Amino acid sequence: MASHPLAIPVRHSGTFASQSPIVGGAPTPPARLSALEWSIVAMAEKDGLSSIREPGRYARALRSFFGFKQPNRLANERLETLRRIAILAWHHGWNVPSSELASFFAAGFTSDQFELIQNSLGQARAASRRRRTR
Questions:
Q1: Which of 34, 47, 55, 56 is the 20 to 30 A CA-CA neighbour of 8?
Q2: Contact criterion met (CB below 8 Å) for 45 and 28
Q3: Among residues 34, 5, 3, 38, which one has the least CA distance to residue 22?
Q4: How confident is the model at residue 10 (pLDDT cuts 50, 70, 90)?
Q5: Listed residue (36, 120, 114, 35) closest to 75, CA to CA
Q6: What residues does each domain of the chain span?
Q7: Structure confidence by residue, pLDDT tens digits, 57-113
Q8: Degrees to nearest 5, angle at CA 105 with 100 and 110
């Protein structure tokens, strides 16, 4: 029976990063997002789920007839993938469709970054709840 290598959590500047197996591995750096990526996550709080769906023919016709503005997609595909994940995370928490997660990982993001986003959104939700109850 094979066993998995032992991983020990190591604290790096306020966040936990898992260390590679003890036998000769170097610790992995903590997950980070750039300031631009964090601004995309913050912007996603105000975006609705409808902004990530492709409009049908009927919806496009109604928008053009009544002059409704179509939500813009980001020009950078990597940042658009981040925006989609952030919108789904704001609205559904950890229940993000696996197809969206697959495109998130294919865009070059890691599972540690996904966890960092989820933890940050959880803290923002908790702070919002505390402000509302006062």
A1: 34
A2: no
A3: 5
A4: very low
A5: 36
A6: 32-133
A7: 777 777 777 877 666 677 788 998 999 999 999 988 888 999 999 999 999 999 999
A8: 125
Give the 3-state secondary structure of the chain. CCCCCCCCEEEECCEEEEECCCCCCCECCCCCCCHHHHHHHHHHCCCCHHHHCCCCHHHHHHHHHHCCCCCCCCCCHHHHHHHHHHHHHHHHCCCCCHHHHHHHHHCCCCHHHHHHHHHHHHHHHHHHHHHHHC
Determine the Cα–Cα distance for residues 20 and 10; give it in Å rounded to an integer: 10
Report d(CA 51, CA 112) in Å as an integer: 26
Do you know the residue count of the chain? 134
d(CA 65, CA 22) in angstroms, rounded, equals 64
Q: What is the pLDDT of residue 66?
A: 80
